[in-house]
Amino acid sequence: MPQLSLKTVSVVLLGVFNVRSFTPTALLKSDVLTLSDAVSADAITILSTKVSSFEIEGLKVDAQSERIQVDASAPPYIRAADILNKTLRENSDFPSKITAIGVNVNAYYMLDNYEMRDRLGRKLAPIDAWGKWGEQLKKAQALPPDDPGHSGMMSIVMRLPMPDDRISGHIDVRVEPSSRLKSPEVFIAINDHYGISPDAGKASSSDPLALLEVLETRFDSSVQRAEEIMSSLLEQAK
Fold first, then answer.
1. Beta bridge partners of 111
2. Looking at the 3D structure of the chain, how many domains does it have?
3. Helix, strand, coil % in the chain, rounded to nearest 5
4. With contact defined as beta carbons under 8 Å apart, do 191 and 159 qualify?
5. 167 within some domain
6. How far is 54 from 26, CA to CA, in rounded Å?
7. Contact at 8 Å (CB) between 38 and 27?
8. In percent, how much of the chain has pLDDT > 90?
9. What pLDDT was estimated at residue 202?
């Protein structure tokens, strides 16, 4: 039975941002962080208006002038969305603009054994599809899992472009053997990407924070969809 080893939910924004709004002190003043969070912030890096990066328990913030990423490694994962939403909505001194947003779910799952991991790889990338070379792959896969000659799927990515719930964007799903440990662990990454339409980017009257609506109304459903995709994939290992 696959067991979840580690899960991170990240929100990534692309556009133009005020990095100073994302320091621990600024987030404390705007009531985004508590005093205990701000005091306990670790690995702080602040480079004028270019970079602000820090970590608190279960949360990592990396803000740059054209890219912001907030990672939540513990529930409630929606905290990553709330920090961005509140900070950008209330920061009127420096108008930000969002051109793209991604809700990303990355997870490591420990499988019962290497046979399950190979089974998943064969389902997603059938050896028979590789012709004569596939015969060599099949022989190499018969070697012990810890043998450097053992073959198998190394990475596969599937993309669904332009899902029905957006006018621009895609959903990418990537599956790989875990690089963290020498074990039958697998890594699954799901990128739920939203962009603005070309027309919206040209219109002077368009809302520069329009994509925050994704965080306000679709964050939970995006994470749930990612979890359902992961469950379906792991079924293939049984």
1. none
2. 1
3. 35, 35, 35
4. no
5. yes
6. 13
7. yes
8. 79
9. 55
Q: Does residue 237 belong to any structural domain of this protein? A: yes
d(CA 46, CA 130): 50
For residues 81 and 72, what is the distance between their CA atoms, to the nearest angstrom?
9
| Structure tokens given for 89 | 């909505």
Amino acid at the residue 17: F
Say if 183 falls within a structural domain: yes
What are the CA-CA distances from residue 176 to residues 100, 148, 179, 185, 186 (Å)? 26, 17, 8, 9, 6
3-state secondary structure of 20: helix
Range of the domain at 136: 1-9+102-198+211-238
Amino acid occupying residue 177: P
Decide if pLDDT at 71 tops 80: yes
| Residue 20 main-chain phi, psi, to 5 deg | -65, -20
pTM: 0.92
Tell me, yes or no, whether 70 lies in a domain. no
Q: Rounded distance, CA 147 to CA 41, Å? A: 43
Alpha helices in the chain (DSSP H): 24-29, 35-40, 79-90, 114-124, 131-141, 198-202, 212-217, 219-235
